[in-house]
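User:
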Amino acid sequence: MHPPKLLVSTRNQHKLDEIHAIMSGTAVELLSLASFPSAPEVVEDADTLEGNASKKSDQLFAFTGLDTVADDTGLEVMALNGAPGVYSARFAGENSTDQQNRDLLLTKLHGIQDRQAQFRTIIAFTTGSGTFLFEGSCKGRIALAETGTYGFGYDSIFIPDGFNQSFAEMDASQKNQVSHRSRALKRFSSYLSSIIS
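Assistant: Predicted structure:
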């Protein structure tokens, strides 16, 4: 018997590798959008992480007919009233790079003592029965400068609570023990195992 197929709504290989590693014990076959070159580009214009994740999973489920999982992640900085939040990927502008986003965040926090922050991931899972949401978060702080070469996004300036190194200084297995995405995925994996067992 073949494991059920699950579409992961990403073309980001870093993200797909992380999801593969975290869900390695779950009996599903993960497919990415690379398998569906004509799939629509979903515009992430909702004003919440929940809205963006649901929009992606709903539209791609409608397009492919496959059970679909999508996520949206935001970095929430307390001194900036939760910004960049849902705008994390385009903090420095619509087509900004990860580097530009990090540079802007460090500039905005220059001279600010309170550097508390958290990453929050929302996973939306859409099937014929509806859309289900799973959340994971990781509290920490924003570093004074970038460190490390692993990871992507804001990893090189985020230091999770209980550690003195940034996500970008951790190997994948270390990061997957504590990251926001891994916590959300573990909740999702547990749910998925319960409905396919």
